[in-house]
Amino acid sequence: MPLGFTVVLGLASLGLAATWNSISDVPKSKWDFIIVGGGTAGSVLAGRLTENPKFNVLVIEAGPNNEGVMESIIPGLQARLPHSRYDWNYTTVPIKGLNNRPVDYPRGHLLGGSSAINGMVYTRGAASDYDRWAKVTGDPGWSWHKLQPYLDKQEKFELPADNHSIAGMINPAVHSATGAVPVSIPGFPHPNVDVVTMGVTEELGGEFRYNLDWNSGHPLGVGWLQATIGHDGTRSTAATSYLTPHVRARKNLHIVTDTRVTRVLPTKGTRGLEIRTVEIGSPDSADRVLLTASKEVILAAGAIGSPQILLNSGIGDQEDLKALDIPVVLHNPSVGRNLTDHTIFGVSFGLKPDAIDGGPWANLFFDPALQAQALELWQKNRTGPYVALVPVDHIGWVRVPDNSPVFNQYEDTSSGPNAAHIEMVLGVSASILSSFASRKLTLEKAIGSSYSTGLSMISPASRGSLTLQSNNPFDDPLIDPNFFDSEFDVLVVREGIKAAMRFAEAPIMKNITTGILGPLANITSDDEMDAVIRNGAGSAWHPVGTTSMSPKHANWGVVDPDLLVKKVSGLRIVDASIMPYIPCAHTQTPVYLIAERAADLVKAAWR
């Protein structure tokens, strides 16, 4: 849908009478649908399904309400969310490919889920990412072309918070201004950095050519950052976008927070194995509450939570379940397998003195007085650095060169020739990047002390797993992304580092940089570079694939293309876990599309 901009005055706040923080407070009712998880997908489903007043919907969210959580509302406070009460605070097992290092694994633990704590980067990926889903599932409805109406329903592109012109920064023809989730170019530009990045696109072109809009389905090149931040300078989440005051006031929607679903249970019926009952529990009590949906239970607990619930319910590999004394309800060895994630690795280049003026906010992330000023500006009139996340305005998407020796040994794992292998987050100082990756990067003292690239390996070959450590549903699962299990992934990150070095060879970069920083400065061979990669890489926190889609009647996978669990009636999964392949994109936008389509699939099934 072509894009047009309008300014709409906010409506007065409505009472949110349908939200509770204890299941005992929820009025007794008959539920058509019980949605487990009020995160990115669950919020979409709740908003869309209750458009039909005949559907009575209960959403059960393990975390707290999102309202009033300033760290989630203000983009510039994002770094305070990991390791807080709004994070599940997972840690992976020691990862063999990272020299047996565990890594932190934040996931959203509040209404809105990870859309309420993530980095707000709005990327769709390549058209071929979705076409591959359609091909592998046998369902053309998952293709890029067929998903376009859901992009329109999902996106509401707005002007930046500072109202600067975005002419030449996006292609309005590939965006919608009428959808649910406010999106914009961040409203606090960094012109001293931007002129360098754009200068490289002009001087080098080629793999670093300017791409007017990498959300067109053809992402290759360098373009302006798009983020889930509205014109009002606040973060857009699934909860703020789909569970608006108007939606929460619907009589057919009930939301309960701070409530944990531990298992889904068989329900007496006439359609074989029916699972339409959820068990609610607390680690502080042996008491359990059972609730049954008349139509469906929909798991939307994410790529970690959904397979964990299935396994605790006896749905998974029978040998693994028996080893933990969990009664087997359905043998499906695909549950918890195929865990796929992006790795991230930082490459920083030192800057000559005063090469890039960091401006008055250069020490923002180290100076409490500056932080107080930034907060005051945001609260007063939605201006200043806190209307954006970090000093980065561009992202590049590059492929490993076709003539790389990598492809003499390995098949290409990307979805097609227009899909990227590497994402380059450009211009961000290492001090900020360290909060997203391994936390092992060199800590710079100020914005402007380095020009950095955050390299994310976004077409991985490695696959990991999620398993249980016990039959206690309150124990964290064992999360193993299995990074760099395939040597291909290491070689691609190596190629990404070399791409960053080529980027730094542009004349405009050579004029201001002093050379590469950190352990990469001392390497003399590819083997040494690979060792640095394994010691320094972390997770981009984009887990998918643990309850993967597959063709109907396939003997692998967990859900059919309509997202119903195989060999089960009444149970559907809608979240990142159903992706058979990870897109070359940050995963929140693909999850929005999955949930939008899933809502229509559910509506069609229960007309």
From TrEMBL:
Signal peptide start and end residues: 1-17
Binding site for FAD: N118, G119, M120, V121, V261, W541, H542
UniProt keyword Secreted, yes or no: yes
Tree of life domain: Eukaryota
Assigned keywords, A-Z: FAD, Flavoprotein, Secreted, Signal
EC number, as in UniProt: 1.1.99.29
Listed SUPFAM superfamilies: FAD-linked reductases, C-terminal domain, FAD/NAD(P)-binding domain
GO molecular function: flavin adenine dinucleotide binding; pyranose dehydrogenase (acceptor) activity
Main EC class the enzyme belongs to: oxidoreductase
Cell compartments where the protein resides: Secreted
Domain Glucose-methanol-choline oxidoreductase N-terminal: 302-316
Catalytic activity line of the entry: a pyranoside + acceptor = a pyranosid-3,4-diulose + reduced acceptor; pyranose + acceptor = pyranos-2,3-diulose + reduced acceptor; a pyranoside + acceptor = a pyranosid-3-ulose + reduced acceptor; pyranose + acceptor = pyranos-2-ulose + reduced acceptor
Active site as annotated: H542 (proton donor), H586 (proton acceptor)
Gene Ontology CC entries for this record: extracellular region
PROSITE patterns listed in its UniProt record: GMC_OXRED_2
Cofactor: FAD
Subunit structure: Monomer.
Protein function: Catalyzes the single-oxidation or sequential double oxidation reaction of carbohydrates primarily at carbon-2 and/or carbon-3 with the concomitant reduction of the flavin. Accepts only a narrow range of electron acceptors such as substituted benzoquinones and complexed metal ions and reacts extremely slowly with O(2) as acceptor.
Family: Belongs to the GMC oxidoreductase family.
Name of the featured protein: pyranose dehydrogenase (acceptor)
Organism name: Leucocoprinus leucothites
Source species taxonomy: Eukaryota, Fungi, Dikarya, Basidiomycota, Agaricomycotina
